[in-house]
């Protein structure tokens, strides 16, 4: 069960809140529609439930607030707006990326593609999808974790009639298995036809909380509200005059002394009351969602209220039949679609999920699942996920690898870096004024950093820059996930890619120089080990500086600015601060450390320690260390203090 209690958005100064003290519940086993005109606060209400919007109130998902849910992807499936993701990523790649983030098998992506009918479009780019295809993909993303609760914002927007029927059938199938479905819409007829319960909003406030039968009876037709202490007398008079005049008038007795009259007008009712001497306290036209708000009847256990449930009996007239409804939840009949519809869409009906969630009421026996579900099969849903996701350290690593190499950006950057490095190394060797390490790194004096290091910094900046520009994970759990495991995965993957790119650039430059000028002109330097360590440290440090800079300032260009600032700003400041003769020396540090250490280390360790100290004493290395420390502290202070979203 989903329970929203006192949801109130934080308004800007001198503005009313978009959502004001909203309290309602969505029961398991039923489809609940959150109805309201555009701007009524429906989307804001969903964002408040997901803690994406500042405000007050709390939402309980089966008795637990969101930050207490151990596996959010297994509990809540979310669709807010368009599917967020890099426009160059494929449909299948996007689903596999979300699978890695949610800790579910990658094969789940293919199953969902078949269920939502996108298997033929699995290699299409996200930027080229139509609105209807994007809606289907968003629903597949919401269903990936086999969630109990679905929160969908306008899922039927801009869909064809047949696609809407398919969507409503899938939502009823999910509810028929005991799940909770809450979706927003601005179409009252759709809410009456496709849901079991309707919660109506107007300017951020709750207007009505009704089952579908009461909603269809009281809120889809114009009416007149009459309050009189003689309700029975007036109802009898109205019905007698309607029969005498052969007019279709319906009189419904509400709570207390209130009558709701359909098919008449205020002047006619006032004249009837005057002729019969009935005192009237209130007489007003009402349409849409201005009518009385009947209190929902208490339900001892979760039940499914079909959309075509009979309405409450009026005083003296039969209630007109409500809008046509889909097959009620708990049946296995496919959803009918108009014959004139041209867009094919798979209908879906419920199946029992053994051990997944308690059923709201007995459902028809499902057909056995054999193999992978096929598009268009009306009796299949994706199979339930076995158990809980395994908390493995490789889970965020898999996500980061799919994020980086799921589009062509990273390979293109690496190829451009290699071409630029070779194009710089060959002319530099001809002039003869650059030492061998500078030639192998293709580092001319006019550049703050060599191309390979700049490329590593750009890849690091894109690691968080793409998260904010195309927030794949942020649609349901916050702007960007802030778990420490994700940060460590990004650092590890970025460091590995930076090392690979740096040494690949050295190999390409060395091969080009030997090819053009001969092997004898470029011998292997004797201190190649220390040079390699410094080169690797520069590449990895720059990549991490770009990553942390983009993570702190939430933009890729900020990460690149942090990389370039190391040699151009921080390095000269450190060099200027420590300029002049040294008053003390660290000579003999190795001997003093050996005396303090309990176990004796080999003499080779002294050489490595000396090389490390010399490397750390370089202005660029010191500036890089200082910059990384400051950026890491800023990231931890600004990010990890928030509630984790993933």
Task: Using brief descriptors, characterize the structure shown.
single chain, 6-stranded mixed beta sheet, alpha/beta, 646 residues, 45% helix, 11% strand, 21 helices, 4-stranded antiparallel beta sheet
Describe it for me?
This protein is an alpha/beta fold. The chain contains 21 helices and 14 strands. It has helices at 42-49, 72-75, 91-102, 107-115, 131-143, 161-176, 188-194, 212-218, 231-244, 266-275, 394-405, 409-431, 436-441, 451-469, 474-477, 484-517, 528-553, 556-577, 589-596, 604-616, 619-640; strands spanning 2-9, 22-26, 31-35, 55-61, 64-65, 76-79, 149-152, 180-185, 197-202, 205-211, 223-227, 250-253, 258-262, 282-286. Strands 6-7-8-3-9-10 form a six-stranded mixed β-sheet, sandwiched between helices. It has a four-stranded antiparallel β-sheet with strand order 2-1-4-5, covered by helices on one side. Helix 17 packs parallel to helix 21 (619-640). The longest helix has 34 residues, at 484-517. It is elongated. The two termini are 22 Å apart. Residues 289-379 and 475-482 have low confidence and may be disordered.
